[in-house]
Design a protein that fits this description.
- By secondary structure, this protein is mainly alpha-helical.
- It has one domain: MetI-like (MetI-like fold, Orthogonal Bundle).
- About 85% of the residues lie in helices and about 0% in strands.
- The termini are far apart.
- The relative contact order is 0.14.
- The C terminus is likely disordered.
- Belongs to the binding-protein-dependent transport system permease family. CysTW subfamily.
Length: about 220
């Protein structure tokens, strides 16, 4: 216990800074993924033939090792937070895109036809019918993406992007378990907190009628 207190006294301010860098890199990449993947998923739901090709391409990119993606962006974007965010953004897209596409396609067509009968435009049907009914599935994709990115962001340390990976790799290089633990535990806590936050948001955006249906199912 005394060793932990001593470590925090010596490195507490740096630990807070690295935690903030980790959150910034991860959450910004997720935000960019949301901005791109949700509208793209909605568009692709209208063109299933193109959708299979696009989702397949993104799935292939997802299989590329994260270190390789980071290395790929170095000649283009240099080192630091920008290439790290760009690489993490690529990994954030697939779960959100796939869940958005699947959930929009799964909306009961009779409800869409009812909206048409009421004179609703395509935009109004998307905002008023499709997105509310798909919100829980889309949020599930965002949750998965966010938790994965919190873990993968530790690798951003390799290209000078900072984050808690600095503690982990310093510990490995110096054979200091305290540094490894100081980096790994906050990453785990951040991942759990992120999952909790997005699970609460998922419940908030799920329509009440759908919630009651899920409980009785």
């Amino acid at each position: 216990m005394n060793e932990v207190i001593e470590f925090l006294q010596e490195n507490g301010s740096e630990l807070l800074l690295k935690s903030w860098e980790h959150i910034y890199i991860s959450y910004l990449a997720v935000l960019l993924g949301i901005i791109v993947a949700i509208p793209l998923g909605i568009v692709l739901s209208r063109v299933p033939k193109v959708a299979q090709w696009v989702i397949g391409t993104v799935s292939v990119l997802q299989t590329i090792p994260s270190l390789a993606i980071l290395a790929f962006f170095i000649p283009i974007l240099g080192i630091g937070t920008v290439p790290a965010i760009a690489a993490l953004f690529i990994y954030s897209v697939l779960p959100i895109l796939r869940n958005t596409y699947t959930s929009i396609k799964g909306v009961d067509r009779s409800l869409i036809e009812a909206g048409k009968g009421m004179g609703m435009t395509t935009w109004e049907r998307t905002i008023g019918i499709e997105l509310p009914l798909s919100a829980s599935v889309i949020m599930a994709g965002i949750r998965v993406s966010s938790v994965y990115l919190i873990g993968w962001a530790a690798l951003a340390s390799f290209i000078g992007a900072g984050g808690l990976g600095d503690f982990i790799f310093s510990g490995l290089n110096l054979y200091e378990p305290a540094f490894i633990i100081a980096g790994a535990i906050p990453v785990t806590i951040l991942a759990l907190l992120t999952d909790l936050i997005f699970s609460r948001i998922e419940k908030m955006v799920t329509p009440k009628g759908l919630k009651s249906t899920e409980k009785t199912a």
